[in-house]
């Protein structure tokens, strides 16, 4: 005889905590190896954060560029660094930004964040990094034909991709040597500027030149924000660090001081060597280097044309090779970090899981790294085709898109810090950003607010100005519609792709039968 209805017992089904990585995610990461020491992390950060391709784009602001550099360091970098130090130490999991946002806002927000963050890298490498490398090569080493431009650009991306596929015990030397080369290059350049000033004199910077204005603010602040991004990148490889909870906060502090000096000194050098009207967003640093190297041999014509000879030409060639290596190392560093963040998202179901698989032999997300390289290669070919080889237009469009993608991701990353302070108070926080709840609101508000402002200024150059079309990036004078098309199209495509990915990978409700204590039929 069946038991009465009241005696039916339903076996409980444990609720799924949407903020904890799934078995698919953790199981797929078994190939990871702890290879990064504290100093590896510091050099990784320097290679990621100090991107010399933006020095010229910042220096076009003249003396004010230094003022805005200091302002943005205090009001944007410091808050974002405190946020990253706390989250990186509290949640030292592979994937970094994806895991933080997922724990705060769920898988949809985490997946969108990781895709935006990842997509900015191919556009940056295949855009501004490649075109600056081309400019350096042509200035110091040799010319490039029409076909040569394509060969150089594609070859650069292929080398960066191959470097990102190396096991981390070997691959970590790429960002490390890139950071050391960058330090050496800037020290050599700065010393040469001093020698050039003694021999030829330099342009002075008056106190009035340092006074900030709204026009320069609109032009350089988005680029300055981009110059300070990347502090969170090592956290994408947190489970490959020897002691992430200790090393992430310390590395951020050391690399941040180095970053301020490594931007401030070359920007100042560019400003004292070149007249403001001759500083270009693409070639500002390259032109300044070429000018000062004439102290070793060469001349500067009345029209500003520089010709290097003898030891000057040799110094230029050596500096050119180092410069290109620095750019290649920075690109490789971002490929490493971006691929790891997106691989973690895929392993957790916010994308095709097969794409996130970690190689048991190398400890690298090989498939995601190859996709990153292929996307970078596509960005090179697309940008060269659309801009018809116009290097300045190519640089401006690609840099704008890459900045916009990253700062859009920040609009979710920085609020995640604040939300986790409230929703996950039990998390062990070896590093705690000071100020309590007031400090948390302040840091999150500053970092998010600057990111939002940068997004608006990027997508509509000249925002808030009486004649906005006068503030379009170099190469797009009088071509607002072309600029907006080139910038908005990739953003729309990335968001649309994520919409498709989310619909294809979202969890489906399971049809699990209820278990009866005795008798009766299972109810679905």
Short description:
By secondary structure, the chain is an all-alpha fold.
Provide a descriptive summary of the structure in words.
The chain contains 17 helices and two strands. Helix 2 packs across helix 9 and helix 5 packs antiparallel against helix 6. Helices cover 65% and strands 1% of the residues. By secondary structure, the protein is mostly helical. Strands 1-2 form a two-stranded antiparallel ribbon. The chain has a single domain, classed as Up-down Bundle (Amino acid/polyamine transporter I). The chain is globular, with a radius of gyration of 25 Å.
Number of H- or I-type helical stretches: 17
Radius of gyration: 25 Å
Strand coverage percent: under 5%
Q: How many domain regions?
A: 1
Identify the overall geometry: globular
Helix and strand arrangement:
Layout: H1 23-27, H2 38-49, H3 55-59, H4 64-90, H5 97-105, H6 107-140, H7 146-164, H8 168-171, H9 173-200, H10 214-227, H11 244-273, H12 284-292, E1 298-300, E2 306-308, H13 310-347, H14 366-386, H15 391-423, H16 436-459, H17 480-505
Antiparallel strand pairs: 1-2
């Amino acid at each position: 005889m069946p038991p009465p209805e009241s005696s039916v017992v339903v076996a409980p089904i444990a609720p799924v905590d949407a903020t904890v990585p799934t078995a698919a995610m953790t199981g797929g990461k078994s190939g990871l190896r702890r290879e990064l020491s504290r100093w590896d992390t510091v050099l990784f950060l320097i290679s990621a954060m100090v991107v010399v391709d933006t020095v010229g784009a910042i220096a076009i602001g003249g003396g004010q560029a230094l003022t805005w550099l200091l302002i943005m360091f205090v009001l944007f970098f410091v808050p974002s660094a405190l946020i990253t130090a706390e989250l990186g130490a509290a949640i030292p999991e592979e994937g970094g930004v994806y895991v933080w946002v997922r724990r705060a806002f769920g898988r949809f927000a985490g997946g969108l964040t990781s895709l935006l963050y990842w997509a900015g890298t191919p556009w940056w490498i295949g855009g501004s990094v490649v075109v600056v490398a081309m400019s350096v090569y042509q200035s110091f080493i040799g010319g490039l034909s029409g076909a040569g431009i394509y060969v150089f650009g594609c070859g650069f991306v292929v080398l960066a991709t191959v470097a990102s596929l190396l096991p981390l015990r070997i691959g970590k030397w790429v960002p490390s040597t890139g950071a050391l080369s960058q330090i050496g290059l800037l020290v050599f350049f700065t010393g040469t500027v001093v020698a050039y000033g003694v021999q030829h004199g330099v342009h002075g910077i008056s106190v009035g030149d340092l006074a900030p204005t709204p026009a320069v603010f609109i032009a350089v602040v988005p680029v300055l924000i981009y110059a300070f991004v990347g502090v969170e990148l090592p956290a994408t490889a947190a489970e490959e660090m020897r002691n992430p909870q200790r090393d992430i906060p310390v590395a951020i502090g050391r690399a941040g001081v180095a970053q301020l000096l490594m931007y401030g000194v070359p920007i100042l050098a560019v400003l004292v060597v070149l007249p403001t009207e001759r500083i270009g967003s693409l070639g500002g640093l390259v032109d300044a280097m070429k000018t000062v190297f004439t102290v070793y041999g060469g001349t500067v014509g009345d029209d500003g044309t520089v010709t290097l000879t003898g030891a000057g030409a040799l110094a230029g060639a050596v500096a050119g090779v180092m410069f290109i290596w620095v750019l290649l190392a920075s690109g490789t560093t971002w490929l490493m970090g971006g691929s790891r963040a997106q691989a973690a998202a895929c392993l957790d179901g916010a994308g095709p899981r097969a794409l996130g698989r970690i190689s048991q032999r190398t400890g690298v997300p090989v498939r995601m790294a190859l996709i990153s390289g292929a996307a970078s290669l596509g960005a090179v070919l697309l940008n060269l085709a659309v801009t018809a080889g116009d290097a300045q237009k190519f640089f401006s469009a690609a840099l704008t898109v890459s900045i916009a993608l990253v700062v859009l991701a920040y609009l979710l990353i920085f609020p995640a810090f604040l939300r986790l302070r409230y929703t996950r108070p039990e998390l062990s926080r070896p590093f705690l950003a000071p100020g309590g709840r007031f400090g948390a609101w302040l840091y999150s508000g500053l970092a998010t607010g600057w990111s939002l402002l940068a997004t608006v200024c990027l997508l509509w150059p000249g925002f808030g100005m009486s004649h906005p079309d006068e503030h379009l990036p170099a190469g797009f004078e009088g071509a607002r519609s072309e600029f907006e098309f080139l910038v908005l199209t990739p953003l729309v495509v990335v968001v649309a792709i994520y919409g498709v990915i989310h619909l294809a990978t979202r969890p489906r409700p399971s049809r699990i039968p209820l278990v009866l204590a005795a008798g009766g039929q299972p109810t679905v």
